[in-house]
Amino acid sequence: MDKMKVTLQYWIPQHGLTRLMGKLASAKMGSLTTAVIRWFIKQYNVNMDDAVHSDPAYFNSFNEFFVRELKEGVRPITEGNSVIVHPADARTSQFGPIENGRLIQAKGHDFSAKELLGGDKALADEFINGEFATLYLSPRDYHRVHMPCDGILRQMIYVPGDLFSVNPLTAANVPNLFARNERVVCIFDTEFGPMAQVLVGATIVGSIEVVWDGTITPPTGSSVHRWNYDTKGEKAIRLKKGEEMGRFKLGSTVINLFAKNQIRFDSSMEEGEVTVLGTPYAHQLKADTLHSDKTKTSAQLSEQ
């Protein structure tokens, strides 16, 4: 059955189905919309207690519900300049070193940073021997994506591609999944060096949006498109740690890339574990801790 689910994705019209679902999700159908939202909440055990508006009848469309705003203070952002925080409510799919320019997708599968970043070798070289993490946002999760640290936007890249599902089953069975799906790559300059935050599209993900430029997809394109931004002066786009930077309309995946010798993931990180927006994700490596025991806790690191 699992093999059939994966094989079917090669045959369905991924972009056509996604456009159709996007239109339906944006439709304002009154009581029918409310009924669908109520079913979805029950089906996926969505926690509405954290939402500013918890009544399904408040939302005019399914997409309004899906990108619902959270109450102030329910996701406190961990303070400290050396602490990088989780950018989303999600689940850790994979994390670890970028070895020989490649990232782990799932057991038996990997993919290249160059392909992920739209074929830009010079950009991929900035992350050689760095660290990466892949975070899967399930249907029940909050679908706004936030900044893991302070950053200045340097570049955004739209990379066209397929729209396979990005759930664990597909990740374990479709080679090169994250480097073949449609995606929006955001490159930030930070005090930890360059940081990539990649928003990966998927089947029935009707839209990927960013706060500085609105909807990036749809419409979809057939070629890579790049935007370069001023990083100095009044025109620079500066975002603070914990600030919203983008959102998915229906679930997907976020991938972070960090440069070599800049960060160490928090000791609480485990494959398959739930992540909570604003909680510790990684810590800055000080010059005097680069060669220290990697089993040290974040508390020990902060004392050095």
TrEMBL record:
Pyruvic acid (Ser): modified positions: 252
This protein's name: Phosphatidylserine decarboxylase proenzyme
Pathway: Lipid metabolism; Phospholipid metabolism; phosphatidylethanolamine biosynthesis; phosphatidylethanolamine from CDP-diacylglycerol: step 2/2
EC number(s) from the headed UniProt entry: 4.1.1.65
Family: Belongs to the phosphatidylserine decarboxylase family. PSD-B subfamily. Prokaryotic type I sub-subfamily.
Localization of this protein: Cell membrane
Co-factor remark: Binds 1 pyruvoyl group covalently per subunit.
Membrane topology: Peripheral membrane protein
Keyword Lyase among UniProt keywords: yes
